[in-house]
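in:
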């Protein structure tokens, strides 16, 4: 059975992992904005349904390739470490997919490029996220999760800010995000090398869904699925929500509005994460933090539901960002503590990541249907509220983690 590599130099490992996670999420957030703008250029009349379709199909590839990539990296033996080949290979292939998107002149070509990008980014992501259970001791998981949570939030801000600056040159923006991910993979490979890259036990056969037989693992999966679904139903259409539902101040461009909302949300998320992650380590409590954060995040959705407006959207961003920052930071620690088999850490984290990628398949389709059937964006917030609340309560039956 695999044990955490020792000695672990967290002072060096966590900053490097943090930068790589920030770059990864910058691509997801930034390309999300550029993709919305690109779709609007190619299909202004049907942008809602077209964006939902492309995002949903792309998420199918993310869902499949995350656990597959995790299982492959679990079974890789290399003098550079079992995660490195998949980080480097996935990032380089993702850059190639970004190049395809940059040259796309139709919705079909754009969809093909995004599907390939999602697939290759999830090879990179599955290997990157497995480094925490590989090498970080359990009593430091909350702190590690806080660091990674902060960097994910910063990545979202950086990504949307970059996207706003490249709104007039979308192809170059795609290429820049792809190049940054390659740089992140090289950074981790060089400066966070595993001290014992060939000493891990390799299981004989990848049984992808075996972890779902473990009760606590299953409840974490369910909770994350519901929370992410509610979150992405709103996030997937944030550009259009701000432009067509909330209304923007005179002269403000939609991409700049997304960047500003993201910046406010991230600043609050960082504060909440800085406090909540280490505090969950100190108190040895995970479930309470996840539940309270999820409940607050769901209730925050009442603001745009009942009183849409640019000023109140900034208030919403403060509350929602704080709650989700705390939720995702501690949820990462919770997920690593319910893994059934350490030797299959990347595979099982990949399965848990299906709970993040899978809802992204449904979110654009469900959100698009709610918007069109409900006659606008308001019903979207009501449905997202119910889903997030259910996700927050889903972790309560977990027994092995306090």
């Amino acid at each position: 059975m695999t044990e955490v590599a020792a000695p672990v130099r967290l002072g060096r490992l966590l900053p490097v992992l943090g930068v790589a996670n920030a770059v990864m999420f910058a691509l997801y957030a930034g390309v999300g904005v550029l993709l919305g703008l690109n779709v609007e250029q190619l299909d202004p009349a049907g942008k809602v349904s077209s964006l939902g379709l492309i995002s949903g199909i792309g998420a199918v590839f993310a869902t499949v390739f995350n656990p597959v990539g995790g299982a492959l990296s679990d079974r890789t033996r290399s003098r550079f470490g079992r995660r490195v080949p998949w980080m480097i290979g996935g990032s380089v292939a993702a850059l190639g997919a970004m190049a395809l998107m940059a040259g796309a002149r139709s919705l079909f070509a754009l969809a093909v490029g995004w599907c390939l990008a999602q697939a290759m980014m999830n090879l990179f992501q599955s290997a990157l996220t497995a480094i925490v259970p590989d090498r970080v001791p359990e009593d430091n998981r909350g702190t590690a999760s806080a660091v990674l949570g902060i960097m994910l939030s910063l990545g979202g801000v950086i990504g949307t800010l970059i996207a706003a600056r490249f709104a007039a040159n979308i192809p170059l923006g795609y290429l820049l995000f792809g190049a940054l991910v390659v740089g992140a993979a090289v950074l981790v490979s060089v400066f966070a090398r595993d001290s014992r890259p060939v000493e891990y036990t390799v299981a004989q056969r990848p049984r992808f869904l075996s972890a779902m037989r473990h009760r606590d693992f299953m409840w974490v999966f369910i909770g994350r699925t519901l929370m992410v679904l509610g979150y992405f139903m709103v996030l997937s259409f944030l550009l259009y929500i701000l432009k067509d539902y909330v209304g923007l101040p005179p002269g403000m461009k939609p991409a700049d509005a997304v960047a500003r909302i993201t910046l406010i949300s991230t600043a609050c998320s960082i504060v909440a994460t800085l406090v909540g992650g280490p505090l969950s380590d100190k108190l040895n409590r995970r479930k309470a933090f996840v539940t309270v954060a999820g409940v607050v995040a769901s209730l925050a959705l009442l603001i745009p539901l009942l009183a849409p407006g640019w000023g109140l959207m900034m208030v919403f961003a403060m509350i929602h960002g704080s709650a989700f920052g705390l939720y995702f930071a501690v949820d990462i620690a919770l997920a690593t503590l319910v893994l059934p088999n350490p030797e299959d850490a990347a595979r099982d984290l990949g399965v848990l990541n299906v709970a993040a990628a899978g809802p992204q398949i449904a979110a654009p389709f469900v959100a698009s249907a709610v918007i069109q059937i409900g006659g606008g964006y308001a019903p979207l917030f009501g449905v997202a509220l119910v889903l997030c609340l259910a996700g927050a309560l889903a972790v309560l039956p977990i027994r092995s983690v306090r």
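note: The chain has one domain: 10-195+213-393.
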